[in-house]
């Protein structure tokens, strides 16, 4: 199995239902003009106190979890605003996948289109993984098989759902544009058939513009 077909690493459990994108990436970190520097702001209010000091009890601040690659989240992970920065911040922090029973709809699309895997498991399996992560003497290691659509821990084998399109994108390391270009022949064939059956609407915007320009040129100027 190639690296593109699996994600393996330390998993940190965030037992917080409805963890929204404002908490994942607070508004004060949205001021930049590019995607850089967002790892600092990830889960800021959970990682730091009001004085800006690290909260030693928070799991991602603990040395054993410094190389966390997978998050185990509660239901409705990533609800709230549509800020794509939440996804970018998770990725810049080193997170490659989030496992949860459900996700905010917009966050789900943002994540999957940016290559952050969201593995949607059943609520019982999500709770079992959460419990196993909390009960161990050290960090839980998980293996996510994108071919077999399973999450494996030392004692749990949980299936997760993924659409055929997103599964293909991860297995072939494609972004949205790349996935669309794989259908280029079908797109061209559809366009040719569409215009052949409706020639009167082809390029209607440019034709209208040319007509307006002609009328404007012929209009006497006062």
| Termini Cα gap | 75 Å
**Strand percentage:** 15-25%
State the CATH architecture of the largest domain. Answer: Alpha-Beta Barrel
The amount of helix comes to 25-40%
The sequence of SSEs as H and E is EHHEHEHEHEEEHHHH
**Total count of helical runs of at least 4 residues:** 9
CATH fold description of the largest domain = Aconitase, domain 4
Give the CA-based shape: elongated
What's the CATH class label of the largest domain? Alpha Beta
The average pLDDT is 92
Radius of gyration: 23 Å
Poorly predicted ranges (pLDDT <50, ≥5 residues)?
none
Strand order of the largest sheet: 4-3-2-1-5-6-7
> From the structure provided, what is the oligomeric state, counting identical versus distinct chains?
single chain
Largest sheet: 7 strands, mixed
Strands, count: 7
Instruction: Provide the CATH superfamily of the largest domain.
Output: Aconitase, domain 4
Overall structural domain count: 2
